[in-house]
Design a protein that fits this description.
Layout: H1 20-23, E1 31-32, H2 44-56, H3 66-80, E2 89-92, H4 95-106, E3 112-117, H5 122-129, E4 133-138, E5 140-141, E6 147-148, H6 151-159, E7 163-169, H7 181-193, E8 197-201, H8 222-227, E9 228-232, E10 246-250, H9 253-265, H10 273-285, H11 287-311, E11 316-317, E12 325-329, H12 337-348, E13 350-351, E14 353-354, E15 365-369, H13 374-388
Length: about 400
């Protein structure tokens, strides 16, 4: 494995580069800690692959080579002890388009799709845009500020004749949970009991904190393998989301054919030449980078937690097991999530996510993106503290 040390403390000025995260800010003195987008340069192996592609000078349509598939298979076998059947892989432009294509493929308008809330806000739009109805099943918020699954509530939601799919998030955004094998097995048992297909968004799977271990949903049992449709990409983990490349793993041949049709109907079946090269470079050569990245995010989380715990002890921080997104309970302020988000922006000049966009269970929370230089995390946290005090 590459032993090169990567500099995550480097400040990269992204203003004026059409970056959604930075150029969406209302003024240049605002620190953006909202959308799930890193401020780090891509791993050197990715940069080198892109340089070679640029030097070639021709950027026409590309075929997806066999190496694309083998990079996925080798990565998950090496990193997560999960063997993926090459013929069960579909490629597409992104995980959200993948989720939408899968919903279109396996549901009918008017049917219900269960989700465990608070949950990534695009889940709601992907479900509704396909004419389906999202069914919110709130996660249990525990005394230690962590989350767990309410299996009884999930059982009730899945029992409805109209519920055809569970749209799952593994690891969970924004709650930061890395689900255990036992938890995934219980969820799958309930889905099998009620003939409900699992759609598992696993885009955050490489971003796990030290001591934690990600388990692919489909790897839990043979039954889970057959019943789970996994949507994944190195895009979030390696900060290459703008290059548009993702994949779907479906071990049910009938569903896979439907998904292929849905992808082509929506015309999200082509990957651009840069996305292709970055994707393969990440999975073939990026392991050392992601391991160091995870350690760095753990340090950022510890710093922010210590500062908030000292200065704003009423702000309860959910333990971070995975992702680079801190989930903070601000309900003690007796302000709504929208009000506190606006106050932090207006008085602290920090842009964070309003918890209310993640479902009813997100009210009373804010989400903070920690994927930036530690000095920026420190300054943003100071501003948040000052704005609230």
């Amino acid at each position: 494995m590459n032993t090169e040390k990567f500099n995550f403390d480097e400040i990269v000025d992204r203003r004026g580069t059409h970056a959604v995260k930075w150029d969406h800010c209302p003024s240049d003195d605002v620190i953006p800690m909202w959308v799930a987008d890193m401020d780090f340069k891509a791993a050197p192996c990715i940069m080198e692959a892109l340089r070679k592609r640029v030097e070639h000078g021709v950027f026409g349509y590309v075929n997806v080579p066999e190496e694309f598939h083998t990079s996925i298979i080798n990565w998950f076998e090496r990193r997560h002890n999960w063997t993926i059947d090459r013929d069960m892989i579909e490629y597409t432009t992104g995980v959200v388009p993948a989720i939408s294509a899968v919903i279109k493929a396996i549901t009918k308008p008017g049917q219900k799709v269960a989700i465990l809330t608070p949950i990534y806000n695009c889940f709601f739009s992907s479900i509704k845009n396909n004419g389906c109805e999202p069914v919110e099943v709130p996660l249990t918020y525990n005394a230690d500020y962590s989350y767990s699954i309410d299996y009884d509530a999930l059982d009730v939601a899945l029992a409805s004749d109209d519920t055809h799919a569970l749209l799952f998030c593994n690891p969970h955004n924004p709650a930061g949970r890395v689900w255990t094998r036992e938890e995934l097995s219980k969820v799958n048992d309930l889905c099998l009991k009620h003939d409900v297909t699992v759609i598992s968004d696993e885009i955050h799977c490489e971003m796990v904190m030290p001591g934690m271990s990600y388990t692919p949903f489909a790897s839990v049992t043979e039954e889970a393998r057959a019943n789970c449709i996994m949507c994944g990409s190195p895009s979030k983990s390696f900060n290459i989301a703008g290059l548009q490349a993702a994949f779907i793993v479906c071990n049910n041949a009938e569903n896979k054919a439907k998904i292929n049709r849905a992808i082509n109907i929506n015309e999200v079946c082509d990957i651009n030449p840069f996305g292709l090269e970055a994707f393969m470079a990440a999975y073939n050569h990026g392991e050392s980078w992601i391991l160091q990245f995870n350690d760095y995010i753990a340090g950022n989380f510890q710093l922010m937690s210590e500062m908030l715990n000292k200065e704003l002890p009423s702000f309860h921080i959910t333990p971070l097991e995975g992702t680079y997104l801190a989930w903070v309970n601000i309900s003690a302020t007796e302000m709504t999530s929208t009000q506190i988000t606006k106050k932090i922006l207006d008085d602290g000049k920090v842009l964070v996510n309003d918890g209310a966009i993640y479902g009813k269970a997100g009210e009373g929370f804010i989400r903070i993106n920690l994927a930036t230089a530690r000095s920026v995390v420190e300054e943003a946290t100071r501003r948040i503290i000052s704005a609230i005090k």
